[in-house]
Amino acid sequence: MKKILSIAFIAVISGSTVFSQAKLVEKVTKKGTELVIPYQKYVLNNGLTIIVHEDHSDPVVHVDVTYHVGSAREEIGKSGFAHFFEHMMFQGSDNVADEQHFKVITESGGTLNGSTNRDRTNYYETIPSNQLEKILWLEADRMGFLLDAVTQKKFEVQRATVKNERGQNYDNRPYGLASEYVSKALYPYGHPYSWLTIGYIEELNAVNVNDLKNFFLRWYGPNNATLTVGGDVTATDVVKLAEKYFGTIPRGPEVKNMTLPSPTLKTDRYVSYEDNYIRQPLMSINFPGVPSYHKDEAALNIMASLIGRGNNSIFYQNFVKTRKAAQASMGSSNSELSGEISISVVPFLGQTLADMKKLVEKSLQDFEAKGVSEDDMIRIKGSSEAGYINALASVSGKVSLLAAAQTYTGNPNQIQKSLNAIQSVTKEDVMRVYKEYVKDKPAVILSVLPKGQGNMRVADDNFTIDQSAYIAPNYGYAGLKYQKAKDSFDRTKVPASGKNPVVEVPKYWTAQTANGIKMIGSQNNEIPSVSISISVKGGDNLMLNNSNKAGLVGIATSLMGDDTQNYTSEEFSAELQKLGSNVGVFSSNDAVIYSVSSLTKNLDQTLALLKERMFKPKFTQDALDRVKKQNIQGLKNAKTRPASVASDVFEKILYGNDNPRVDVSNGTEETIESITLADVEEFYKQNMAPNVTSIVVVGDIKEDEAKAKLDFLNQWEKKEIKLLSPAAGKTFNKTVVYLVDVPKAAQSEIRIGFTNNLTYDATGEYYKVGLMNYNLGGAFNSRINLNLREDKGWTYGARSGFSADKYDGVFTASAGVKAAATDSSVVEFIKEITNYYQSGIKGDELEFMKSSIGQADARKYETNGQKAGFLSRILEYNLKSDYVVTQTNILNNIKKEELDALAKKYLDMNKMVILVVGDKASTLPGLQKLGYEIVELDADGNRKM
């Protein structure tokens, strides 16, 4: 690695002299086998840091702008502001109109988002490489030209959207407020980690537009930001464009890194709350931890893994395997200022939270008595290496790692250092941090309780917040002034796109084994890793003729992933961890799937374990009893989540409660209870066969090597397998509203749709209805989302789409909306669908759709997962190798008239049903005004009398 200082140059772009000189600070290249992301680092005169990583393997670019400001920079009483501001950054700037940021990027074939945590906010896009200049123009415009475009109306709409996001992810979700209670109790009053990034509703209600403007001026200067660009670019081009668009933006106020002591607890703090959405209580035990990059971070992560993650952990053995708890885990999380070490337990019925606390204490004693073995360390370190390597699979992953490391440490080159920190941890280190941070240490102990069952708490609450010692810091808001950049070019002109990149679908090979297994594969040596998917046809659909055994396939695959004849499940997991590999088995609607990932160097050993998993399962009554109990508890928990209830009941409305397919995947409590070990053994014996199997291989392996290494599958004997077709859905001739009551729900879940006879066809009518729906509800800038989210502020997101398989299809429009706007949201859904049905697509929408979908091809084949999905579709649906070319021709030539005809055919609101899951007391009066028949259902989809 060379560090080159004070190398500057003046660039000339489009005949204009650039005002800011970029200094090359550092250039990092890969040497030998070290784990490193090559990059060049520059700094502009205004303080903006620029990091460029060149990767020309795919015609895509990932752009990330990270500002070193998160909720930890918020003032007391103004929580949630950093995240709120993230939303405002998408609402236009001087040269980008309202709602155009998403549209410009989507129309360019890109995808975008932003995120906020305690310590930073980032904005990011993945785009075809020819769109780089346009994206840098967009990012610079909101960095330097935001405030005059901020209006009170935009402010109010996005405040409502943030409140809906809180409702969807916290207030309307089981255990959703647990972290909020823990943060208030663990950190002293006024500590910036004592509130969540989402903030409190009452404080979001109190802020005003001037608060927002001050927040921007204080924290969003270029000297508090890092621009990271990775992908099919050159550093020279990126720096020139960055100088042009960012270089004249004035520096902001100085921003210093924060340092605060970790919280200290003198005694245990007991807190509790009652949750509207749960049936089983939860206990959470939380100790103060360490900040990111602390010398003990790696040892604490290993300690938490050994105690409470995976089936080799003490917690799994003492809680889950004994069937005392549905889940029990331990984790160590780290942020810039501090960290937390957390234990979480959800007991089964018959166990109290007090029982769980005693068992936690016993488990910790067991851990200390057992100690840490060399084998433990090999396992953890092996899986860590694979995790770091797999993080480099996409350009977005690499850019994210570089941006985060620069933001928190000032040095992007941290990945090998982090891996070295893990590899250097000793057994003694693990036991030392256990004794220093966990053993006999006071903690915050939270009890989350079902409504009306406060007597189930671990112990009486004993903690109240003390505000007496708080002294407000100087946040630096005095004297802030808005200064805009002065340029010698016209920023109002949207930069033109570069030459369209050449997009090539992955080259692949196909084969078939002697016993009938179809194979498809593609070589990709960007990282030394291989992914394999083995799909055995049948899955849940095999049980459609026997609804009394619904859920059997899921139960069977769980046991197929448990003990084998030569390994206990714990031993099997241990071997995989040492290799940094995964071998999983699960069921889908129409297949049982074995999923394999492995570092190339460990593939032979991984495949030996796959062979054991596939051909030598050991079905035991103990494992069956445990899995059945977990699944039944999962069904009960799903009934407490409004979104899950909405999805399950919607399916039952569409297909009928008596249709075997509606319960076949998860089963019911009754059918799961009826499943025997003989049922599982019979399922495995009768339905696992090579002649209904297909394999997808992607990664760092050649065709002949893949065939040779998978040759053991030729030993598999053929069987006669009868695949069933699922029963058809219902048809509807009038609009009916179905209502499921969730008392006092903060939000309502809406589902609108119908079943149709559309089956998956990559180049037929199914593909075309996807094009037709794109502007209605398929893109962020769709009519439905712009209406309900961006214009009304009633939801965090609304959408519509068609889905299909070989058997049938479904159209679904959906959203989670604030309870008070339930009936109004239904009206707007109906209005948008009906208008599209009657008037069809507009000319500008047609062009937007063609540009967006056409250019997005550049992003489709970057990772092993994306390549595997492409190959799976070819194999599953017997697609021609050039089907993507056919799709492109359809896209380029499709006319408004054809799309409008499809809207007429598939968007008739008189043939759809409407489901609302929410608080009946507040939503029913408004729904009654709509004039439709209303049928009330319970959470199982049964009609209530």
Explain this structure:
It contains 31 helices and 27 strands. It has 945 residues and is α+β, with helices and mostly antiparallel strands. Mean pLDDT is 92; it is low at 1-18. It folds into 4 domains: 45-246, Cytochrome Bc1 Complex, Chain A, domain 1; 269-391 and 405-456, Metalloenzyme, LuxS/M16 peptidase-like (Cytochrome Bc1 Complex, Chain A, domain 1), CATH 3.30.830.10; 509-640 and 659-715, Cytochrome Bc1 Complex, Chain A, domain 1 (2-Layer Sandwich), CATH 3.30.830; 736-937, Metalloenzyme, LuxS/M16 peptidase-like (Cytochrome Bc1 Complex, Chain A, domain 1), CATH 3.30.830.10. Helices cover 38% and strands 19% of the residues.
Largest sheet: 8 strands, mixed
- Side by side, the strands of the main sheet go 1-4-5-6-10-7-9-8
How many extended strands? 27
Q: Which blocks of ≥5 consecutive residues have pLDDT under 50?
A: 1-18
Q: CATH superfamily membership of the largest domain, which one?
A: Metalloenzyme, LuxS/M16 peptidase-like
Helix tally equals: 31
Q: Cα distance, first to last residue?
A: 74 Å
Rough outline: globular
Strand composition percent: 15-25%
CATH class of the largest domain: Alpha Beta
Average pLDDT, all residues: 92
Helix content: 25-40%
Calculate Rg over CA atoms: 28 Å
